[in-house]
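We both want to read discrete structure tokens more fluently, so let's practise on a single case. Once you have written the record down, we can walk along the chain together.
***
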Amino acid sequence: MVSGATSLSLVRDELFATMDEAEQSLEQFIAERHNGAPLQQAVDNLQQVRGILSLIELAGAELLAQEILQQATDIPAGAGEERDGQLAALSNALHVLRRYLENIESHRQELPELLLPAINDLRQAGGQAPLPESFFFSARLDQVRPPVAARKVDAAVRAAQVRQLRHMYQVGLLGFLRDQNPQAGIKLMARAFARLDSLFASEPGGRLIWIAAAALEAQRDGQLLPRKSRKQLFSRLDRELKQLLGNAQYEAPRNLLKELLYLVALADSHGPLANEVRGVFGLAPLPFTDQLLEEEYQRLSGPGQAVMRSLSSAIREELASVKDLVDLIERGTTGADSFVSLHAQLAKLSKTLGMVGLSSASSALSGQLPTVSGWIETQAADFPAMNKLADAVLFVESMVGNLERGERREARQTAVMGDEVESFAQHQLIEARIVVVDEARAGLALAKRAITSYLEAGGDKLHLANVPFSLQAVRGGLWFLGQERAAELIGACADYIQKQMLENSQMPSEQMLETLADALTSLEYYLEGGAVLRPETTPSVLDLAAESVRALGLPVAA
């Protein structure tokens, strides 16, 4: 790697000049499709670029140049509109290649993984299968897991558990695929495979479950991004699991194992399964993180999806400045130029809001400009008018809050200044619901930690003293939100802990504690997945929790 980055400076001028000629020839061909000479010239230049990159051993850049050359060779003279996608991918790939080489020249570090998106765009445009994320990753796949004692369970009970755990995985996978709080979905998926691993640890097919459980644990702890390739990987994992459950001797494809091991190596996870897999397979830390790759992807390809969030953050800073200034004016602690400054800030913010499509918010602020102009002339603020200005600012803040949550701007265009009270009230109601949900999640997390401490302490009931009270508080919050069924399930868990763990002298069996943990995990996923705010998003999660509560021997309403 060092030799490639060092050698680049020796051939830089010739390499970049050749790439410039290739880009110019390609642009000429795009403008004059009937003339095949510019295309042939571009192909000749691309062959030279590939040869130079091969000579200096820049593997990733050479692979991208090879893909560019293959796509350019495939395009015939006189190509019509059907080749526009392929030509666009070629132009973009050349741009990315140049930016990548400039980055190597500046930082002396190669990250060929950065080129995979451009390579896969080219391959997709040409009708080829994309390369996997782990293409540049290597690991020995023949390592064997150290002997582990599997939990002995009755065959019928085990079959029921496997069905329920696969259902749990599918529920989490559905939320992950739909981008409905992917992190919550991954938690549920990781929980399901961790339980499956305890059932299949000593069987030949358990190797895949072990590695998959470690990968899901790494995806969860490392908060890896929900990329399309990972959605496809975890969907494929469900299909492989189906085959494994029907054939205990089933051996998973090696490329699937490699993809899963790549996630373990990529994530900064210190979970027990991830650490065990790293040790057995000798996985060294990678010189990058998933977040670093994402930042570099965006830097090479232009603005990313975070543009709107950055913009709304900047607007919030401007709003905070306006609110501080209004507060100081109301207290009478500002100078004569404060009204001029307030007018300028409101005018600037109004224009910005209009540019991003928040016309109602823009109108709300622009409607206050004549009032502030009057204050400039009189050097005094009218306090009833000051209250109206404060209401307008809060109205704008609610609109920006909607923008940050990703609501469609078009859906908010019907709001006008006359509806500011309703809009602000709706914003405050949403904020209040979010607070209640956060408190409920904190209550469930507290309960899970307390149960873990109870187990580690060999059944010391002191750790559980406040758990039923905490869960009943969560139950009350969910009743307030109109989530009666979720509230009933949490109340059932609280009753089980009170009667079977606090009032009973004997600890529940390990199986019953695992089932209680499944119920709490499902309810936690329901809360984290936004189902309280949008109940239609995860309709079957409460069914999953109800199965676990029913397995605890508690009645559950339909």
About this structure: The chain is about 70% helix and 0% strand.
